[in-house]
């Protein structure tokens, strides 16, 4: 059996470096713009009757899209590792708790 050097297939799938720089920037811009659009739409829906639920859904989706857009620039594994670094751990926990509990 031969031993393969380098990244495994899973790492290549999870790492955005397998994409070209132009593709990464393009999808970052698309996801970030979608995140901003959802956040603005959610804010606009806040003023409708029973709009608080729609606001919560669209604003959360917008924030998650903007957060996930950075995965295209640095890769999802690197993004998660950086989020859980000791100097960012408290902010990450607070953000995740507030995002998914409320």
Can you put this structure into words, describing what you see?
- The chain has 102 residues and is mainly α.
- It has one domain.
- The chain has helices at 9-14, 21-45, 51-74, 76-83, 89-101.
- The protein is flat and about 45 Å long.
- The N and C termini lie far apart (51 Å).
- May be involved in fusion of retrograde transport vesicles derived from an endocytic compartment with the Golgi complex.
Q: Secondary-structure blueprint of this entry?
A:
Blueprint: H1 9-14, H2 21-45, H3 51-74, H4 76-83, H5 89-101
Helix pairs in contact: 2-3, 3-4
What is the gist of this entry?
May be involved in fusion of retrograde transport vesicles derived from an endocytic compartment with the Golgi complex. The chain is an all-alpha fold and 102 residues long.
Descriptors:
Vesicle_transpt_Got1/SFT2, Vesicle_transpt_SFT2, 102 residues, 5 helices, mainly alpha, transport, transmembrane helix
Indicate how many domains the architecture comprises. Answer: 1
Over the alpha carbons, how many angstroms does the gyration radius reach?
A: 17 Å
Proportion of residues in helical segments: over 70%
Largest sheet: none
Note the gap between the termini. Answer: 51 Å
Total helix count? Answer: 5
Rounded mean pLDDT score = 82
Structural class: mainly alpha
Order of helices and strands: HHHHH
- What low-confidence regions span 5 or more consecutive residues with pLDDT below 50? none
Strand content: under 5%
Number of strands: 0
Can you tell me the overall shape? Answer: flat
Organism: Acipenser ruthenus (Sterlet sturgeon)
Keywords: Membrane, Protein transport, Transmembrane, Transmembrane helix, Transport
Subcellular location: Membrane
Family: Belongs to the SFT2 family.
């Amino acid at each position: 059996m031969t031993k393969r050097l380098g990244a495994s297939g899973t790492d290549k799938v999870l790492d955005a470096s397998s994409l070209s720089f132009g593709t990464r920037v393009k999808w970052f811009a698309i996801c970030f713009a979608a995140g901003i659009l959802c956040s603005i739409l959610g804010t606009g829906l806040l003023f409708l009757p029973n709009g608080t639920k729609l606001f919560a859904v669209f604003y959360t989706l917008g924030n998650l899209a903007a957060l996930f857009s950075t995965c295209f620039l640095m890769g999802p594994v690197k993004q998660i590792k950086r989020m859980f670094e000791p100097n960012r751990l408290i902010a990450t926990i607070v953000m995740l708790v507030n995002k998914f509990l409320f």
